């Protein structure tokens, strides 16, 4: 349901601490504009006295003080019909303008999964699925463990307004993780044709440290190997048995050597 409200009345405002009157018009939409309910409310000293409801078709008193006004307005010729027509025009003219900024507005969520604490396997922990920056507020968040939906141990904060026409929500799952388990946060939102998912894999911290150490050692070894090869290539070749022509290279009969193809730096050296 979508609601539009417009203040009115003699001064258009309700002053706190004073006996002011207020007129308030509301449009309640269901399924777009298929069903529209118009309310015209008259309030005095913060108390609603009379209301026109388009579904009822006449003015109704909300208090004894408002009864004379409701009876008088209903006796006027075509007063309820005019109120209903005015309400239809008011709601229709405002729906298109506001719907593009509210009902039809779509902002995709950002989904992040993380544990509350860094703990080893087989210890109780809490996984957080943080869904942020989405609009509208209708959203569905589910937890899955190894492809199976988890319903027990799920706690939600509920919708939290961000103050910029977007929302956030955090859905937590209590776990006792074992090695190899995969936890998935599954999010469905009107802004997307397909769900958004984020995974967290249970992994022992010691194994993770060993893996990182192995990767670091491998990278360091490759670095030293590259430096050694570079130094070897730039060194003079000591195993050549005769001078090397630019387009003719001769290897020793028993030794396979790396050949330096640079021209000799000695200016007295000549090539045939």
TrEMBL record:
<keyword id="KW-1064">Adaptive immunity</keyword>
<keyword id="KW-0472">Membrane</keyword>
<dbReference type="InterPro" id="IPR013783">
    <property type="entry name" value="Ig-like_fold"/>
</dbReference>
<keyword id="KW-0391">Immunity</keyword>
<dbReference type="InterPro" id="IPR014745">
    <property type="entry name" value="MHC_II_a/b_N"/>
</dbReference>
<dbReference type="Pfam" id="PF00969">
    <property type="entry name" value="MHC_II_beta"/>
</dbReference>
<dbReference type="GO" id="GO:0002250">
    <property type="term" value="P:adaptive immune response"/>
</dbReference>
<dbReference type="InterPro" id="IPR011162">
    <property type="entry name" value="MHC_I/II-like_Ag-recog"/>
</dbReference>
<dbReference type="InterPro" id="IPR003597">
    <property type="entry name" value="Ig_C1-set"/>
</dbReference>
<feature type="transmembrane region" description="Helical">
    <location>
        <begin position="211"/>
        <end position="233"/>
    </location>
</feature>
<dbReference type="GO" id="GO:0042613">
    <property type="term" value="C:MHC class II protein complex"/>
</dbReference>
<dbReference type="InterPro" id="IPR007110">
    <property type="entry name" value="Ig-like_dom"/>
</dbReference>
<feature type="domain" description="Ig-like">
    <location>
        <begin position="109"/>
        <end position="197"/>
    </location>
</feature>
<keyword id="KW-0325">Glycoprotein</keyword>
<keyword id="KW-0812">Transmembrane</keyword>
<dbReference type="InterPro" id="IPR036179">
    <property type="entry name" value="Ig-like_dom_sf"/>
</dbReference>
<dbReference type="Pfam" id="PF07654">
    <property type="entry name" value="C1-set"/>
</dbReference>
<dbReference type="InterPro" id="IPR003006">
    <property type="entry name" value="Ig/MHC_CS"/>
</dbReference>
<feature type="region of interest" description="Disordered">
    <location>
        <begin position="1"/>
        <end position="24"/>
    </location>
</feature>
<dbReference type="GO" id="GO:0002504">
    <property type="term" value="P:antigen processing and presentation of peptide or polysaccharide antigen via MHC class II"/>
</dbReference>
<dbReference type="InterPro" id="IPR050160">
    <property type="entry name" value="MHC/Immunoglobulin"/>
</dbReference>
<protein>
    <recommendedName>
        <fullName>Ig-like domain-containing protein</fullName>
    </recommendedName>
</protein>
<dbReference type="InterPro" id="IPR000353">
    <property type="entry name" value="MHC_II_b_N"/>
</dbReference>
<keyword id="KW-1015">Disulfide bond</keyword>
<keyword id="KW-0491">MHC II</keyword>
<keyword id="KW-1133">Transmembrane helix</keyword>
């Amino acid at each position: 349901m979508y609601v539009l409200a417009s203040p009115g009345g003699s001064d258009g405002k309700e002053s706190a601490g004073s006996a002011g009157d207020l007129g308030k018009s509301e449009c309640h939409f269901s399924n777009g504009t298929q069903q529209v309910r118009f309310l015209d409310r008259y309030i005095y000293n913060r108390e609603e006295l009379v209301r026109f409801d388009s579904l009822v078709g006449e003015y109704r008193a909300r208090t004894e003080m408002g009864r004379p006004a409701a009876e008088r307005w209903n006796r006027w010729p075509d007063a309820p019909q005019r109120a209903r027509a005015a309400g239809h025009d008011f709601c229709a003219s405002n729906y298109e303008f506001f719907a593009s900024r509210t009902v039809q507005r779509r902002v995709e969520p950002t989904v992040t999964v993380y544990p509350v604490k860094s703990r080893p396997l087989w210890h109780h922990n809490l996984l957080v699925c943080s869904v942020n920056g989405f609009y509208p507020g209708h959203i569905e968040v589910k937890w899955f463990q190894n492809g199976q939906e988890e319903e027990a141990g799920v706690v939600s904060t509920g919708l939290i307004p961000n103050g910029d026409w977007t929302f956030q929500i955090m859905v937590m799952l209590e776990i006792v993780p074992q090695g190899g388990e995969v936890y998935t946060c599954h999010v469905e939102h009107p802004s997307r044709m397909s769900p958004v998912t984020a995974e967290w894999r249970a992994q022992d911290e010691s194994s993770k440290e060993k893996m990182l150490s192995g990767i670091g050692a491998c990278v360091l070894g490759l670095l030293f190997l590259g430096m050694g090869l570079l130094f070897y290539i730039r060194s003079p070749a000591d195993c050549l048995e005769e001078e090397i022509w630019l387009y003719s290279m001769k290897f020793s009969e028993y030794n396979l050597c790396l050949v330096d193809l640079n021209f000799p730096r000695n200016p007295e050296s000549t090539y045939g």
